[in-house]
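Chain and conformation:
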Amino acid sequence: MKARVKWVEDVMFLGESGTGHTVVMDGPEEMGGHGTGMRPMELLLLGLGGCTAFDVVTMLKKSRQDIHDCVVEIDSERSEEVPKVFTKINVHYKVTGKGLKEAHVKRAVDLSTEKYCSASLMLGKTAEITHDYEIIDTDQ
């Protein structure tokens, strides 16, 4: 896997993935940023959310669950000292579907966070990661 980051101006950078997709990164105004892009640490949280959501959706589909939606909401805390690593992260899954079995949802979340999600396992080296979920049944 490859990536490339190019400085644009001030504290704005353009990130390009090995697959050719791009994202604008920009720092906070107090550091010369202009609010035109995401902060690099925000991208780490989005990567975590995307990685684990991918796992959960894939596992639920494989177990023939009638899943309609999966939203991952992430709250985090960072160290006050440099390096300002994440110290606490809570991942909350909102899984919507028809007749979803809680055992399947729990197993998918547990397997993702404990075995499959590379981002979660990597960030777990510096942060205490907790997770929870809610099931929203479309039958109601």
